[in-house]
Amino acid sequence: MSTSKIINGFEHVSYDRDTYAPEEMTQRTSDFYSWLDSRRSVRDFSNRPVPRNVIENLILAASTAPSGAHKQPWTFCVVSNPEMKAKIRQAAEQEEYESYNNRMSEEWLDDLKKIGTDWNKPFLEIAPYLIVVFKKVFDLDEDGTKHTNYYVNESVGLASGMLLAAIHKAGLVALTHTPSPMNFLKNLLGRPENERPFLLIPVGYPAEEVYVPKLERKPIEQVSQWYD
């Protein structure tokens, strides 16, 4: 049974959850890793409808992420309107064309060859939903009063990662699309002055036939350093 007490004038509730024996922890973490390792970025989407309540649940899951002082400095803008998706695609492709032809270094372009990307982004119209993640650099009351947010990039990055995991859990696919610059998203969606675009994530079912690059993730030795 949950209990509560007052700390610094605010109610705190007891935190109770299951713990596991080392053997079960090992199995659970191994299973979770294997499941997450099957997640891939997908660029070939089906236009098959996705229930709205599924997207709502994905956003609620993402919003359980930790944030600086629990300010939750994010807004998830969900776009399904075909006309708006077409406008977003047009603006994104303009920026991407400039990037691929004038902004990216030769090294960058060479690194992208194995991914197989270019400035064409048809998935922005095909995917049933676009989730545009905005970060709130500060909170803004209706009267214009500003309130400080803390660790905004870190907080929104955590929420975005949890959103991707939730999308994978739903059996859907996603792509983290980052046209640069992304201010056109703020203008097209009419977002307030305290918000900045962070990620553009198409969400939906994969197309009937999808191929993704055969990539290998770095082994534990290359992504960790232990100090025993």
What is the topological layout?
Blueprint (H helix, E strand, L loop, with lengths): L3 E4 L2 E4 L8 H16 L14 H11 L11 E6 L2 H22 L2 H7 L10 H4 L2 E8 L1 E3 L5 E3 L3 H18 L3 E2 L8 H7 L5 E10 L15 H4 L5
Antiparallel strand pairs: 1-2, 3-4, 4-8, 5-6, 7-8
Helix pairs in contact: 2-6
Notes on the protein architecture:
The protein is of the alpha+beta class. It has helices at 22-37, 52-62, 82-103, 106-112, 123-126, 152-169, 183-189, 220-223; strands spanning 4-7, 10-13, 74-79, 129-136, 138-140, 146-148, 173-174, 195-204. The protein has a 4-stranded antiparallel β-sheet with strand order 3-4-8-7. It has a two-stranded antiparallel sheet with strand order 1-2.
Tell me the series of helices and strands, N- to C-terminal: EEHHEHHHEEEHEHEH
Number of helices: 8
Structural class: alpha+beta
Mean pLDDT: 96
Strand tally is: 8
Count up the domains: 1
Features of the shown structure:
NADH Oxidase; 8 helices; two-stranded antiparallel ribbon; alpha+beta
